[in-house]
């Protein structure tokens, strides 16, 4: 861990900071032409996902939106098309409340034989009204981490083929509020990070899931950056207005957004760090770092936990084990003649807690 910390601290040497907390997503791309690049993004029908997709598409990129709500996806495509008639946007149905849906979405992407130059894992939930996913995982862990873990696992071959490529995890400074201590055993840490139910305070559950994002990003950096040319970034987008991630609080959330407006970022500003990390050439080689406001200043990172290589590996192995156990419950499609007659589980329901598209720390 000491070597990793030392390397991380030295990587911004020699770079000049060009963008700040009030820079917008389009500001970070102002001199770039992204024609020929393909980026996949989860959760683009609300929050910063809208501005993330819009900025990349307006600069000429092929944007593939992984969304639960296809109707809203089509509306967004048409709206961006009003600004740029030749916009190149596709969408794939993906409900992160269901691992089956996440896996099927990745398989659909791969079946298109599109390149993949960047993957932005943007969708997330905070204090959802429904406490467990379709697969009975605690909702923060199941949606914010495990479903995205499925997408990453399935899509890494496409990223390798398109390398140099990048993965952006929309995490949060909340990841530093887990309460985990370095002296705790790995098993104690993993038990906290992957809760079996929602018995703890919702903010703590959210913090766990966001630390999972950081640990996974740093693990992928170690495995993929040198070997396969995939750069990874864990980012905090900033506290923002106009996002519905805390919609479970109803009128209270609306009131809080109103009074906090002068101190928060706009959605376009909130999307800036994601867009900057996935597309700007200046940071192509700055992998395995935690970012905020378009800069890899890690003051908000709980490095004792996030830079623990053994914990990164343990979370990865635990996540794979959970997926293996889930796969065992999935029965193959039965057929009579050429007619499909059923699968092990029904179609995933349209869930009120599925991927909202933003993070509000």
UniProtKB/TrEMBL annotation:
Pfam families in alphabetical order: adh_short
Keyword tags: Oxidoreductase
Keyword rRNA processing attributed: no
Keyword field contains Oxidoreductase: yes
InterPro entries named among the record's database cross-references: NAD(P)-bd_dom_sf, SDR_fam
Transmembrane segment boundaries: none
Taxonomic superkingdom: Eukaryota
A GO term for molecular function: oxidoreductase activity
Ranges where the record places region Disordered: 334-361
Biased composition annotated in UniProt, kind: Low complexity: 352-361
Stated family: Belongs to the short-chain dehydrogenases/reductases (SDR) family.
PANTHER family membership: DEHYDROGENASES, SHORT CHAIN, RETINOL DEHYDROGENASE
Name of the featured protein: Uncharacterized protein
Gene source species: Caenorhabditis japonica
């Amino acid at each position: 861990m000491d070597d990793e910390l030392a390397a991380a601290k030295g990587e911004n040497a020699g770079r000049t900071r060009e963008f700040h907390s009030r820079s917008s997503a389009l500001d970070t791309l102002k001199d770039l032409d992204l024609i020929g690049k393909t980026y996949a993004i989860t959760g683009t029908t609300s929050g910063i996902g809208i501005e993330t997709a819009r900025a990349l598409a307006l600069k000429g990129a092929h944007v593939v939106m992984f969304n639960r709500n296809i109707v809203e996806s089509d509306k967004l495509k048409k709206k961006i098309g009003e600004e740029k008639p030749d916009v190149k946007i596709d969408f794939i149905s993906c409900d992160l409340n269901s691992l089956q849906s996440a896996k099927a979405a990745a398989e659909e992407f791969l079946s298109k034989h599109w390149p993949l130059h960047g993957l932005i894992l943007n969708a997330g939930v905070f204090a959802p009204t429904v406490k467990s996913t379709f697969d009975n995982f605690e909702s923060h862990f199941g949606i914010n981490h495990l479903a995205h873990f499925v997408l990453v696992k399935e899509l890494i071959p496409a990223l390798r083929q398109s390398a140099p490529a990048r993965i952006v995890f929309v995490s949060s400074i909340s990841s530093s509020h887990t309460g985990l201590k370095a002296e705790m055993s790995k098993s104690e840490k993993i038990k906290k990070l992957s809760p079996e139910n929602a018995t703890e305070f919702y903010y703590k559950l959210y913090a766990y899931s966001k630390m999972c994002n950081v640990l996974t990003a740093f693990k992928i950096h170690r495995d993929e950056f040198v070997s396969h040319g995939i750069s990874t970034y864990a980012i905090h987008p900033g506290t923002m207005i106009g996002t519905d991630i805390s919609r479970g609080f109803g009128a209270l959330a609306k009131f809080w957004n109103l009074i906090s407006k002068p101190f928060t970022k706009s959605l376009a500003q909130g999307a800036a760090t994601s867009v900057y990390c996935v597309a700007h050439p200046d940071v192509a080689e700055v992998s395995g770092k935690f970012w905020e406001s378009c800069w890899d200043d890690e003051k908000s990172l709980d490095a004792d936990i996030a830079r623990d290589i053994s914990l990164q590996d343990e979370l990865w192995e635990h996540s794979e084990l959970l997926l293996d156990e889930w796969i065992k419950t999935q029965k193959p499609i039965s057929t009579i003649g050429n007619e499909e007659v059923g699968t092990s589980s029904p179609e995933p329901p349209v869930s009120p807690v599925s991927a909202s598209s933003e993070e509000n720390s």
